[in-house]
Amino acid sequence: FFFRTSPEFAYIMLPPSPDAVDEQAPSSCSAPATNLSMKISNHCSGVSDRCAALISLAYEVTSESWSELGTKSASEDIDGITERIVALLLVRIVAIVTSKKSTLSSSLSYSDLSTTTICRTAMKENHAEESWHTFITEDILQSLRDYVKTICEGYRCNAYHNVEHAYHVVISANKLLDMMLCDYDEDDPCMFRPSYGIRADPLSQMALIYSALVHDVDHQGVPNRQLVYEFDSLAIQYNDQSVAEQRSLAVAFSVWMKPEFEALRNLIFPERDEYARFRKIVINLVLTTDIASPERLQILKSKWNEAFGPTSETKERKARAVMKRNSMNNLAQTSKGEDIVVVGEQEFVPKNPAQQNS
Length: 358
Description:
This protein is mainly α and 358 residues long. Strand 1 and strand 2 (346-348) form a beta hairpin. It has helices at 18-21, 30-63, 78-99, 115-125, 127-131, 138-153, 163-181, 202-214, 224-229, 233-237, 243-256, 262-268, 272-288, 294-308, 315-334, 353-357; strands at residues 341-343, 346-348. The protein has 16 helices and 2 strands. Helix 2 crosses helix 4 and helix 3 crosses helix 6.
């Protein structure tokens, strides 16, 4: 189950020595068991309290309307921003682990994997207190917090490509994802939102939020074209191709692969193939943000056409064409043979001279 990043990072997971468990343990047989039970209980309670606070925070962020998205946290410092992103990523991790139906999460089930549903279920049924501590340990929470803060601190004090921008992209991506994943809509209970497969793919859901977090880390605030023009060292390193985006990916994955985050990686990606797929999705998502690259835009259009068909043949355009034809037919019937003039998207019947004079 332990995915090693490379041979130099591989090591054997050994249990702690008896002395490390309780240096002051009495010599009796019953006392150590009691002390250990109390420690486990206190540990689970502490983790549960922290998970409960993060669940509440994730639900608060996700519940914000589009018009108010991010306004409540506009004055947050980097610690506050870090905590909110940790809360959203924690929910995505829970979605991944619980979807595997492992023994660690056998008691957890959700009607869908949206942040709203997972948080509501956890707050209503205390699932976090009962089951999350079996895989969300104190070390996992701390590792997640350390990683997110490291990335947030990696953002420079630019006018636009800064940590506040990264946070706004994260909560926007989370809001869109939640709208796609949530089976129930209070405003329209009968509404069905197509998800194109992401509803059943928690790994892609995690990749989306992760990509939003890292997509501009260490951005210099200078366009790629200018970096290429100046023969900047990054342009040379990345061969003039999506320079800033490739730099952000390199920074994000370099930090992610450090030994201190191995337990976190093993929890999310117990199999090597899962991490490889996650990494591929993140790379594609971040490189897609290079909207100034004609080559990248062409690749994006090709992928769009492959997934959804040519833009001219989308269902929306076909529906509008059918509605337009029906409208013209109806208008033709009511006008009793009068000429129909189409201007842009509107149709109207011109008045005859007698009607105009009247």
